[in-house]
Design brief:
Length: 126
């Protein structure tokens, strides 16, 4: 049975706001949303989150995938975190990067994609 997509997930701002709120529920840190429109052709936004431990990284990923699945949105990649330092969840137009502090500092996606503007998330509604 296919669920109907929650209205709050129908536009980019609502989708990234919901993902940021779900990461925040599990105490994700340094939550940053980059507007990738016009910069790359494979995503409209990146949501970047720091997790302090592997357990927290898994919990954040699980919270996002399970709650968005309940709201009618499934990732297009596998739902199991594959890496110890960086978990990626691909929702098509939004890519979620959950990274440990070392990986976040090393890869520095905000600088790598320096032309991207940071999107302000209007609310952290649950």
């Amino acid at each position: 049975m296919t669920k109907t997509l929650s209205p709050r997930l129908e536009n980019l701002e609502g989708r990234v706001g919901r993902i940021a709120a779900l990461a925040d529920e599990i105490k994700g840190e340094q939550i940053t949303v980059l507007d990738m429109r016009g910069i790359c052709d494979f995503a409209d936004a990146f949501v970047i989150v720091t997790a302090r431990s592997r357990t927290q990284m898994n919990a954040i990923a699980r919270n996002i995938t399970e709650k968005l699945r309940d709201e009618g949105l499934r990732p297009i990649n596998g739902e199991e975190p594959a890496d110890v330092s960086w978990t990626l969840i691909d929702y098509g137009n939004v890519i979620v990067h959950i990274m440990n502090p070392e990986a976040r500092a090393y890869y520095d996606l905000e600088s790598l994609w320096g032309d991207a503007k940071e999107m302000q998330v209007l609310s952290a509604e649950s």
